[in-house]
Design brief:
The complex is a heterodimer of chains A (157) and B (103). By secondary structure, chain A is of the alpha+beta class. Helix content of chain A is 28%, strand content 39%. Chain B has strands at residues 6-12, 15-21, 44-51, 54-61, 70-76, 83-90, 95-101. Classes of the chains: A alpha+beta (157), B mainly beta (103). Chain A binds chain B through residues 29-30, 33-34, 36-38, 41-42, 78-81, 83, 98, 101-103, 105-112, 114-116, 118-125, 154-157, and chain B through 15, 26, 28, 30-32, 45-46, 48, 50, 55-67, 69-77, 87, 89, 91, 93, 95, 97.
Chain lengths: 157, 103
Amino acid sequence: MDGNRRKILKTGGGMTLLSLVAAAGWLRPGDVLAADWNKAAFEAKTMDETMKAFGGSTPAQSKDITFTATPDIAENGAVVPIGVSSSIPKTESIAILIEKNPNMLAAEFDIPPGTDAAISTRVKMGQSSNVYALVKADGKYYVASKEIKVTLGGCGG
Amino acid sequence: MADPMKIRANVVGDSTEVKVLMSHEMETGQRKDAQGKVIPAWHIQSVAATWNGKTVLTAQWGPAVSKNPFLSFKFKGGAKGDKVQITWVDNKGDKRTDEAVIG
């Protein structure tokens, strides 16, 4: 009898918590995010197409964008560490593009105020290629590039 | 449900450095299986990081991000004991949220 009552209490409590979580909107961010995915940009095959998908014009070359912890030669194309740091004021976003991959855009990061304009991640590269760091700052686009040689491709079967 | 992420958040000066290792296949959609059929793409599409409920980073990813993705970034503020929460959503609608305490 007593044990049963405990069980009911527990179930009830669990349900309340879940509905609270849903009501507070904690479950919502993910749903919003999925809809935001810029399909056109990720399917673009050239720099021009990518820029069009972002709604920007041809980016200006910039020396204020640097690659950090990025190798000149990557032994394994499946895991190429890439770090991008921008010292351009009001940097809003950083994108990593790989020229010779089937689709150029690899990743795009939005930098809210208060977050350093420096990110690092790992990407796949099918073959040796130029890698572009595209930075959006104060509504304008800037770009820097670096060639990375790949010894073993990361896109084959 | 996917495996949990490994998140480390540490105070460095007046900033917090966050390092995340996610567990995801990140299939490109370019590869073929033994029968020559294309293996459908399966990758994380969006990532969001919050600190005390404030968004500190969002990202959109394509299939070119490596398997078991790694991400590192820094934001101003954050104190020991604060919580950093990371959420990802993949193109199949699967999602995962993990949380770490700043140390």
